[in-house]
Predict the structure.
Amino acid sequence: MREPAVSDIINATSSPPQALLERLKDYGQEDIFALWDELSPEERDFLVKDIESLDLSRIDRIIRCSFHSQGLPAAAIEPVPESCVSTVEERTMEDREKWCKMGLKAISEGKLGVLLLSGGQGTRLGSSDPKGCFNIGLPSGKSLFQIQAERILCVQRLAAQSVNEGSTGVTRIHWYIMTSPFTDEATHKFFESHKYFGLEVDQVTFFQQGTIPCVSKDGRFVMEAPYRVAKSPDGNGGVYTALKYSRLLEDMATRGIKYIDCYGVDNALVRVADPTFLGYFIDRGVSAAAKVVRKAYPQEKVGVFVRRGKGGPLSVVEYSELDQSLASAINQETGRLRFCWSNVCLHMFTLDFLNQVANGLEKDSIYHLAEKKIPSIHGHTMGYKLEQFIFDAFPYAPSTALFEVLREEEFAPVKNANGSNFDTPDSARLLVLRLHTRWVIAAGGFLTHSVPLYATGVEVSPLCSYAGENLEAICRGRTFHAPCEISF
């Protein structure tokens, strides 16, 4: 005789499962069952399974800790010490060459893994596809995923060549890609349909970030439907918990990975697995590092690195939290803004530090409360989505270094639909074309164009050149008609 299924028990009674109801009462969430009597047997079954999938004690701890932390005064902030930053001006050619060699050596030894944050949909771009599938309109028509995959292929080749001229052996860089429940299936299918863009299938690992219930202003779960709790992704900082629970930190250790290059998908100029940044990171011997760009003007809507408290750790303050007088203050010695180092989600971590962060953030259970309109059974209601951010890791770092890069060379965000004022596919495409045009001219090439040059340019395939190197043989003395793609 078979054991009765949960659905049999639910359908045989007109009241919610008593044990589950008592658990919900322990956390003040019994209102989840408020519309139980109106649900069909299938909807009751769905609701029970939805609740049973939640770690109620963990979620309750997160809600309480996050609400409590909102009322606490933040430690006073100080500018980042100059000693923590490698600025473009102070970097010598010798430094760059040394760091690049160090980075390529570590890559050739299999010590670098790449971690992509790709949980977002292109909703603001007018697409329901994962952002990485987006084609920003380059002559090649390549998606962001393809551009990044080809940069990995290029770095692998450069690393092999740096160790042994003419070597055919290539050490593969493992690519860990964090999706979300909303992008996971589509991301898998996109990679499969494009044959992983030339990468080996087994050098790419997909994993999902978590979700967490949305809550009302009094901390109760918002019901998206009478039988379903409203949930949202737990932010790009959910990567630490996701890596821990998917056991990928152990996977990295097994592969011999010691350093992790971590970045967001929506940057058309991202230098994936940048050997120079890696070499700088290794040379400094720090636990965490970030590429930064100089803040363009005091009111620019970007988070900036600061020091929390006297001699405290480096962390990121969002632009909305930075007092306008501090945002406008000038460092009289350097002529820069006192708080000028903008966070652009380009990070490097040691594997040891990632393990520390995964445990520390889980223990602290503090999430940011993002006030949003949340779809609910009462229409759109104001409540909170709970999120962690990738930069939440930095206060845990015993040592942190910042590495300035030029935004016109490494930062072309794709966040808003064309027609918006900034960070659009059009603006990102032009940044790519202008940079690559400078590369081609520096390599001895010429351009013709039927539209003004500021509105066009050439695209250099990442398979040809990672950062403008090795283009003389392709470009010297040749004329290219813009727009076009230059490839082998």
In short: Residues 144-163 form the longest helix (20 residues). The two ends are 69 Å apart (CA to CA).
